[in-house]
Amino acid sequence: MADEKKLFKVKIDNISVEVEPGTTILNAARQIGGDIVPPAMCYYSKLQGSGGKCRTCLVKVTKGSEADPRPMPKLVASCRTTVMDGMEVANITSPEVQDARKGVVEFLLLNHPLDCPVCDQAGECDLQNLGYEHGADGTRYEFKRRTFDQIDIGDNIKLHMTRCILCYRCVFTADQLTNRREHGILGRGEHAEISTYIHKALDNDFIGNVIDVCPVGALTDRTFRFKNRVWFLKPVDAHRNCDKCCGKTVLWMRGDEIFRVTARKDKYGEVEEFICDTCRFDTKEASAWTIEGPRKIDRHSVISQGHYVGTVKPKEILTDVLDGRQPRLLMDIHSVSEVNRPEIDLSKIDGPAHSDDFRK
Amino acid sequence: MQALTTRVKPVDRRPLTFVERLYIPSILKGMMITFKHIFKKKATVNYPEEKRPFSPVFRGLHILNRDEEGRERCTACGLCAVACPAEAITMEAAERKPGEENLYREEKYAARYEINMLRCIFCGFCEEACPKDAIYLTETFAPAHYERKGFIYGKPDLLIPDPKEKQTV
Question: Which CATH number is B62-168 given?
Answer without folding.
Answer: 3.30.70.3270
